[in-house]
Design goal:
There is one protein chain. By secondary structure, the chain is α/β, with parallel strands linked by helices. It folds into 2 domains: 5-135, Rossmann fold (3-Layer(aba) Sandwich), CATH 3.40.50; 151-323, Alpha-Beta Plaits (2-Layer Sandwich), CATH 3.30.70.270. It has helices spanning 13-26, 38-47, 65-71, 88-96, 109-141, 151-168, 182-189, 191-208, 232-252, 277-293, 316-323, and strands at residues 5-9, 31-35, 52-56, 81-85, 101-104, 172-179, 214-219, 222-227, 262-269, 298-301, 309-312. The strands form 2 sheets. A 6-stranded mixed beta sheet has the order 7-8-6-9-10-11, with helices on both faces. A 5-stranded parallel beta sheet has the order 2-1-3-4-5, sandwiched between helices. Helix 8 crosses helix 9. It is elongated, with a radius of gyration of 29 Å. It starts with a strand and ends with a helix.
Length: 325
């Protein structure tokens, strides 16, 4: 196996050195790293790769809590741990202590290589399966075009944000973002250009958001951003950043014939009113509709029961002058 790393653990320096030499002789590993203590082992696992742990057992060793601790971590519980000893009693003790396999230090080199290769292959298959599972999970939660969260991610995340508000009392907000005149843009530049613009707008939204914010594609040319622990005023600040970033995208893409702008609806929920996600979405949608009705390229914030307040970002030349480069 190429690029495999073996970690060698043991307190008996003679046995540990013997084991390092033995593993090197198999030519299965491009790195064989001796370690003194289980603490050093865990430190390495947190910071570097490992494909197998080879453990030089002491004759009197009768406990090894680190093996159980290792199996308690999801990413390491299948990592092969091979105990090496020089007598039958210690070999059996290796299994008792939780090792995946137990071998004599005097094992024939061909047999040793075959056994180790078997463990390495199983470990690699597990890594491949884990990676495939992670990719499938990501695909199930990610919009393939924009690489933002998809509708499933949004539905899960807004429920979590609502539950957090109910527990803590802190508000959470929602931005509903829609590209202005996107149908006309597609008619003017074509659908491939439209997809390109969606990607750029998604990137602008992602770059504007904070680390805790959840950005998703809601459908078509519509995006949403969930803002945990955020009031309406702070949500408007983020909306302002998004307008600026989209203006930069429009200039960067030289969209003079059909400038790129967005309309944004803002809603906020706290314990003073309903925190239910459905209500928050409805209110953001009403605010977005109002932004469209009031001329587009603007942000409207829903503040019931009064009429929504608005922030007008003007037409492209005005916004360019206001925002600068």
């Amino acid at each position: 196996m190429m690029n495999a790393t073996a970690l060698v653990l043991g307190t008996d320096q003679r046995k540990k050195l013997q084991l390092v030499q033995l593993l090197t002789t198999t030519q299965l590993f491009d790195r064989v790293k001796p370690l003194q203590t289980p603490t050093a082992l865990f430190q390495h696992l947190k910071n570097g790769p490992a494909d197998i742990v080879c453990w030089a057992l002491d004759n009197e060793e009768n406990k090894a809590g680190w093996v159980g601790k290792l199996s308690g971590y999801e990413q390491w519980h299948d990592l092969p741990v091979i105990a090496f000893a020089d007598n039958q009693e210690s070999l059996l003790n290796g299994f008792t202590l939780g090792a995946s396999d137990s071998l004599k230090l005097s094992t024939d080199l061909n047999e040793l290589s075959a056994r180790l290769q078997g463990h390495l292959r199983r470990w690699q298959r597990l890594l491949d399966l884990r990676q495939s599972k992670e990719q499938l999970q990501k695909m199930a939660l990610t919009d393939p075009l924009t690489e933002l969260g998809n509708r499933t991610t949004f539905d899960m995340s807004i429920k979590q944000a609502a539950a957090r508000t109910q527990r803590s009392g802190s508000p959470y907000s929602l931005l509903m973002i829609d590209l202005d005149h996107f149908k006309g843009f597609n008619d003017c530049y074509g659908h491939q250009a439209g997809d390109k613009v969606l990607k750029h707008v998604a990137e602008a939204i992602r770059n504007s958001a904070r680390e805790a914010d959840i950005c998703c594609r809601y459908g078509g040319e519509e995006f949403v951003v969930i803002l945990p622990d955020t009031d309406a005023k702070s949500a408007e600040v983020l909306a302002n950043r998004i307008h600026k970033q989209v203006a930069l995208v429009s200039r960067r893409l030289h969209l003079k014939q059909q400038p790129l702008t967005v309309s944004i609806g803002v809603s906020c929920a706290d314990q003073k009113g309903s925190t239910h996600p459905t209500h928050l979405v409805e209110e953001a949608d009403r605010a977005l509709y109002q932004a469209k009705e009031n001329g587009r390229n603007r942000t409207e914030t829903w503040r019931p029961p009064s009429y929504p307040t608005s922030i007008d970002y003007g037409y492209m030349p005005t916004r360019e002058l206001a925002f600068g480069t």
